[in-house]
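Job type: complex structure
Entries:
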Amino acid sequence: MLLPTNIILLFLIIIPTILVIWFSLVNFQPTFGMSFWEAKFVLLNNYLKIIMDKEFVKAVIRTVYISLICLGVEFSIGLLIASILTGDIIGKKILYPLLIIPIMIPPIVVGNNFWLIFSANGPINQIISIILNTEFKVSWFSHPQYAKIPIILSEIWHWYPLTFLILFSGLVNVPASEVRAAKILGATEWQIFWRIKFPKLKGIITIALVIRMMEALKVFDVVHLLTHGGPGTLTETISFYLFKYGFKYSRISYISAGAWIILFISLLGFSLALRSVLVRRNKNA
Amino acid sequence: MPGLVLNSISKRYGDVQAVDDVNLQIEDGEFCVIVGPSGSGKTTLLNIIAGFTKPDAGEVTVDGKPFTHLSPQDRNIGMVFQDIGLFSHMTVRKNISFGLEIKKSDKNDTDKRVEAIADRLKIGKLLDKKPGLLSGGEAQRVAISRTLITDPSFFLFDEPLGNLDANLRMEMLTEIKRLHLILRKTFIYVTHDQEQALSAANRVIIMKDGKVLQEGPPREIYNNPMSTFVAEFFGVSPMNMIHGTVLPEEGGSRFKGAGLNVKIKGYSPPEEAEVTLGVRPADIIIGGPSAEDGTGTISSLELLGDKNQIYLTLEQEKTISVITAPKVRPGLEKRVKIKLKDNKIFLFDRDEGGRLHP
């Protein structure tokens, strides 16, 4: 019976989607005191307004920037740990669960911990003071340049297990017979990695990056917990920007248009990335 | 001058002694087949030669130089595996050239060698295909080509034809033999199929439970098995084994068992003993004037064209197989007299399996 599922889908996805399309095309704010079906139809006005908003454009660029840094670092860490764990090392069984703990911790705990670690009297400042041997006291969350650092670091710490897990499963599935054949032909470990393992991982790497990028582009919780988008708007991400305009200033129509723009850009990017994977699959078949 | 020498090699996995104090000398250019039932340690031994497995004790030397500490990369060995292991993301051409490309050889030279090797193994048409599109035999040809390109000093084959059907297996075996004739390099070939061993090898090494039981040219092992295991295991038609006792008598001894009463010439045991008599199916004669070693009932008859395979039931439900010329065709259920060829009778110790006679 598909009917119950379809009803749930209707209420959870289809109706809200239609509503958001409607919101983005009218001028609706709950504070105006009128119902959304009475709101004035303004066509693409909201879209134009939000694209012209420098704060929005900056939030988009900033989010992509933060995401790419996180992605690059997480990917490198994930690949490194995955390659180490596929080799013969002692304590593998203990390391494996330990290394994936971060992904299981709720974002609010991660955020609070990083808030404590980076607070003015927190361990980070103290450790740097000891290393530099002078008093070092930066208020990380209100510093115009440094405020992004705790956000990026907490994201990396929280999410590197995802890329690690995906890459690990990919590496484990590289046929042992091919690795042995390459060895006996004289290939070094380095050559085996880049010529045998890595090409086989291309597809799974793309998928890992796409999944992680989708998450990274939505980053909200740590921003909310650590900096609140501050100082000023210097750490506002797309989600935080939309949250602020939508739920603080009640500009529902405005953020609906913004959400559609983001969705459209993401869809375009991700489908291009995934298409390269699917095309390669078909060629191999 | 001995090429590859294995000196007291041992390897243990947990409770299993996979390889137990093996000593071997394999000379340059030999086609040496290691044969044994599964679990006999033959693949472990091959992996020790290849460098994938470190022996617990003993050492491997090549032309007198120590080899044991080298990694597989540095041994300059060609190896063909049962699970082939072609690089599935590369074309056949890239698979073959891999061994040279990682050494950053000249591109033109590499291309020429790939073409030459592909011609030799008749896979020239496959060069631009991916391994996923090849048949089992083609894939094995590519795997062999891939090992040839680095011009290794010797070749290891780990049950390379195990996944092929019977016809293809014989074809590929012929190919490998031909290659050995051309290259004149040492081939070490592991298989559980003694038929392959018999037809290809200059020398056969029979392993069981990690030990080398017997080694030598296949003919010699066939004609001269040193134990019941070798006698039963080696040869297309296994030796018949009949339990009984041997009694000393004037001018030799007499074997009695399963209704047989056979004069054994040239063997005089000090006293009566429990033994196993071994005789090849082709060394039993049915009928004739001197057939007085025993009587059996024909229980089954297979006419194979060039020969007849007959199963005879002796006393105590013991069945033996006999191979005769096609014209000898006794009827089913008929009782016949048999004669064992005098000089083809073996006696083995019942408990230890060691050979007593001749």
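Summary: Chain A has a mean pLDDT of 88. The longest strand of chain A covers residues 26-27.
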